[in-house]
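Write out a sequence, fold above all:
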Amino acid sequence: MRMKRKHITGLLATALMVGGLLAGCSGKEEAAPASGDSKPKKAEFTFRLADNHPVDYPTVIGDKKFAELVNERTDGRIKIEVFPSGQLGDEKSVLEQVQLGAIEFTRINASPLAEFNDDISVLGLPYVFDSDEHLWNFLESEKGTELLDGLEASKMKGLAYYSSGSRSFYSTKPVKSLADLKGQKLRVQQSKVNIDLVSALGASATPMPYGEVFSGLQTGIIDGAENNLPSFDSSNHYQEAKNIILDHHQRTPEVLLISQTAWNKLSEEDQKIVKQAALDSVTTQKEEWAKWEQNSEKKLKDAGVTFTEVEDLTPWKEAVKPAIAQYHDKYKDLLDAIEAVK
């Protein structure tokens, strides 16, 4: 019996040794990375984001913050390369490429998106937002989110809104009041709302590509145009148009978009990461916009541009009422929602 016990004890010891060796070969030690495995993981997806503004413009800075957040939160699995300055084409052609899935992301003004979701037109109606705070109260509401979601039928998905400030009129001629706009030839975007707006204010609406505005001001084809302060500054239009009247007639935001094709490639978890990263990048973009606006105002005033702030918008609002009444009927529910978040 004693011999048998010794034999069994020996077998158990041997088994334990073998088991320990096997565990050492197939357990945690095997899974631990070698010193040469510390290289960054190769991206599963490399996407492109198109923006037509310069590299230091607030929307591009917002784009880059978004890309950075996505890269961090996916541990490098999703890489987004930002292409500013219209490198991938103008806004119209880029938007077409996003619909096709050839370009994955873009940043674009909300106005052209009304072609794909008619309700977005409400964001471009004049004098519907009293301030930036009023605008963002609406954009961040359920109705504002619904406008972004409404783009899915056109093979795009809206991720977030970016700030674009407010638009006002500037001219080569003195503009101190509403009466001074009468008869002036003012460049507008190719938009029925904008044409109706300018005509209702007594001016002559002149649709023209943005790139032709500077020469139009130089040659007198137009007397003025309308835009936000950073664009008035960066376009150099102030070199010809030395007068601006701040009526803040529109506060149309920018939109960060993803192609539905690219969206569908992502897992549900990654979709949530991309969406949240877009929303989180808004703070950076808004901060940069505020800085740029302040810098532009100082630069323009130093360059001799005369600023006139409209103290009472009532006459302006009354002047455009007949022209935009049709839109108020069409977008009643949305306009009620805008009114409710003042």
User: Anything to note?
Assistant: The domain at 45-164+252-294 is CATH 3.40.190.170 (D-Maltodextrin-Binding Protein; domain 2). Residues 268-302 form the longest helix (35 residues).
